[in-house]
Design a protein that fits this description.
Elements: H1 9-14, H2 30-42, H3 49-63, H4 70-81, H5 86-93, H6 108-116, H7 120-129, E1 138-139, H8 140-149, H9 162-175, E2 180-184, E3 187-191, H10 194-203, E4 208-211, E5 227-232, H11 244-255, E6 265-270, E7 290-294, H12 300-303, E8 315-318, E9 342-345, E10 366-369, E11 389-394, E12 415-419, H13 427-431, E13 443-447, H14 457-466, E14 475-479, E15 501-505, E16 522-526, E17 533-536, E18 544-548, E19 555-558, E20 567-571, H15 578-581, E21 592-596, H16 603-606, E22 614-618, E23 621-622, E24 642-646, E25 649-650, H17 652-658
Parallel strand pairs: 4-5, 5-6, 6-7, 7-8, 8-9, 9-10, 11-12, 12-13, 13-14, 14-15, 15-16, 16-18, 17-19, 18-20, 20-21, 21-22, 22-24, 23-25
Antiparallel strand pairs: 1-3, 2-3
Helix pairs in contact: 2-3, 2-4, 3-5, 4-6, 6-10, 8-9
Protein name: NB-ARC domain-containing protein
Domain Disease resistance protein winged helix: 131-200
Domain R13L1/DRL21-like LRR repeat region: 404-528
């Protein structure tokens, strides 16, 4: 069976479908729809009776114009939420846009009204997003980077960074219903409804144009177009039998009406269809500010013959998937794009060698990569003073351009990883990194090679002491440190009081009592061979605890009385008994427990985890040890909703008890 849906009734007749098989979907019932509309207006916010009666009275008249469409109710309702005054509500009701409704199914005037009430900067943000393919799922950072490239996120005298302004704009568009938030894996993505996308392109058609298989024959091209996208994803069926070759011929015909030399934005979405001759279409481009070329099957100069002359670029995103036939090199001319703010190579899977002069991009804010080792290739990174993220800096990777002093001038960085710290000789050398003054730094990784050996643990301690971060830090990872004690800024002179996440791996500290002072959300400890007593800060905020490969651990110390409600991961050795280590009375509200390489767990303790939703057991014998107080006779069922067993030995009896 094939289910076909459409908003265009005429298409149904072309399919030759029997009328008996056609189902016309109606809108919501009037009373339910009005309740939904009012919910869109008020949401969860408090409102006075005066506001409610005004909006309900005028809103009932607006509802009649929304044609029982949830999308129209959402956009108009959220529009009214921003201003509940009577004058504002009446201005929406009396708008002349309503006069343009063509029939009982036409909701475009309602959507256009919502769009026209947007501030200009939000209209611009939305218009540029409409150039992407239908149902494109944006990442949050992806959207903000795009807007930075278009230079929309200008501070205008505010004491705000572009990223903060962009987050605010996205929240507004989401609240007003112009984006839908969807979950893709563990990441939030943002999708535009196709009707809203069509609306934005129609309104902005003098400046923005999107060409695809379905509209290439009929699209109207204005000479004033500055922002262009071409979508070649899919196959011939998308264009009524149109082949790729015919599509490109149509593009060449359209080019006669398009002033390519004036283009500021060019987005090319390909699925392997771009031909070598395609570069002919854009050989005159010279004023581009934003360039996005995805899934290239040819070197970039074959797609854009004039690539090396695009010196005005602010945003460059190019992608090429792996190929066994050939390897493309990243063009060396990239390092001459001095105005570039965003360089996105997240979809670049060909040659990874960076141009030697990549640090000439002095205006670069973000260098987006799919492999953090690319960041470690940047020589003299200190010249990139506006850089926000440097995932991996390897100390003394080469003789020139990789000293810690390179980090001194990176005052805008929010995420920083410093590796090969075993190459730092003394605290004076560490001081020049200037971490304590980097007030935007939120995430920091300090990494020593775990295979290296320290000649002097005191020097190692002093080096870590000199790498004291600013008090604004939220996430900290310390890996492979060979000193015997934690730094004072994490202990008696605690300066990172706002720290939310701490990851300690392979450290040789003898004392972990400092952890009691922290108000963490996440704590991960692994490969700490000297750890025996672990005083975990069991605060109400702690929601994720992971303990791995700590063979000498004897006890997890519970100093607090409230229950732990989050996730716990324990990876031990074959001799680690959780019955002796965990205080199960404090875990009655635990939601997720992951255990690996541990001795069997007594059922007596497992019974106490009555809030458990997920239990994962790996590399161990599942043997629910019988309790000695007569509880075996009581019928008991594990409350979990998700049970995972990996490489475990479990008897039929024990498996039945778990299920």
């Amino acid at each position: 069976m094939v289910l076909f849906t459409t908003r265009i009734p005429n298409l149904v007749s072309k399919l030759g479908t029997s009328k008996d098989l056609i189902i016309e979907l109606k809108g919501l019932a009037n009373d339910i729809f009005e309740k939904y509309f009012l919910a869109c207006v008020f949401g969860q916010q408090e409102h006075g009776e005066d506001h409610y009666s005004i909006v309900k009275d005028i809103g009932s008249k607006i509802v009649e114009k929304l044609k029982c469409s949830p999308l129209a109710a959402k956009t108009i309702g959220r529009l009214l939420r921003g201003n509940l005054s009577e004058d504002y509500s009446r201005s929406v009701l009396q708008s002349k846009e309503w006069e343009k409704q063509k029939d009982d199914h036409d909701i475009m005037p309602a959507l256009k009204l919502s769009y026209e009430f947007l501030p200009l900067h939000l209209q611009q943000c939305f218009n540029y997003c409409a150039l992407f393919p239908e149902d494109y799922a944006f990442g949050k950072d992806e959207l903000i980077h795009l807007w930075i490239g278009h230079e929309i996120l200008l501070a205008s005298g505010q004491n705000k960074r572009a990223e903060d302004i962009g987050c605010g704009y996205l929240d507004e568009l989401l609240m007003l219903g112009f984006f839908n938030k969807v979950q893709r894996g563990e990441e939030d993505r943002y999708v535009i409804h196709d009707l809203l996308r069509e609306l934005a392109l129609a309104i902005a058609s003098n400046g923005c144009l999107s060409i695809c298989y379905s509209n290439v024959r009929s699209v109207e091209v204005h000479p004033s177009v500055r922002h262009l996208s071409i979508v070649m994803r899919g196959n011939a069926d998308h264009g009524g039998g149109m082949t790729d070759e015919y599509f490109i011929r149509e593009l060449k015909r359209l080019k006669k009406r398009l002033k390519v030399e004036n283009l500021e934005t060019l987005l090319l979405f390909d699925n392997g269809s771009l031909k070598g001759s395609f570069g002919y279409l854009f050989k005159e481009v010279s004023s581009l500010r934003v360039l996005h070329v995805s899934e290239m099957t040819y070197p970039v100069y074959r797609v854009l013959e004039n690539f090396s002359k695009l010196i005005h670029l602010r945003y460059l995103r190019i992608g090429a998937w792996p190929s066994w036939r050939t390897q493309f090199k990243l063009p060396s001319t990239v390092s001459r794009f001095y105005h570039l703010r965003i360089l996105d190579l997240n979809e670049w899977y060909h040659d990874r060698d960076l141009p030697s002069s990549i640090s000439n991009l002095v205006n670069l804010h973000y260098f987006v990569v799919n492999d953090e080792n690319l960041h470690s290739e940047i020589s003299m990174v200190g010249k990139l003073q506006l850089l926000r993220v440097l995932n991996k800096f390897q100390v003394k990777r080469r003789q020139e351009g990789f000293n810690l002093k390179e980090l001194e001038s990176l005052m805008e960085v929010t995420k920083l990883g410093i590796y090969n710290l075993e190459n730092v000789v003394n605290k004076e050398e560490a001081d020049v990194a200037n971490l304590t003054l980097k007030n935007h730094l939120l995430k920091l990784t300090l990494h020593w090679d775990k295979k290296s050996k320290s000649d002097d643990p005191v020097v190692e301690r002093d080096i870590l002491e000199s790498l004291k971060p600013h008090s604004n830090l939220k996430e900290l990872s310390i890996i492979g440190h060979k000193g015997y004690t934690f730094p004072e800024w994490l202990g008696s002179e605690l300066s990172v009081r706002g720290l939310e996440s701490l990851h300690l791996e392979g450290v040789e500290w003898l004392d972990f009592t400092t952890l009691e002072q922290l108000n963490l959300q996440s704590l991960k400890i692994s490969d700490c061979s000297f750890l025996s007593l672990l005083p975990i800060p069991w605060t109400p905020t702690l929601c994720d605890v992971g303990i791995r490969n700590t063979s000498s651990i004897q006890k997890l110390d519970y100093e607090r009385t409230f229950s732990y409600k989050g996730r716990m991961t324990i990876t031990g050795t074959s001799g680690l008994s959780l019955d002796e280590v965990l205080a199960f009375d404090n875990l009655t509200e635990l939601k997720e427990l992951i255990i690996q390489y541990c001795l069997p767990l007594a059922e007596l303790h497992l019974r106490k985890l009555n809030s458990l939703k997920r239990l994962s057991l790996y590399d161990l014998d599942v043997d629910l040890l019988p309790s000695s107080n007569g509880l075996d006779a009581v019928k008991w069922q594990l409350p979990v909703e998700q049970l995972e067993l990996g490489n475990c030995f479990v008897s039929e009896k024990n498996l039945t008890r778990l299920l």
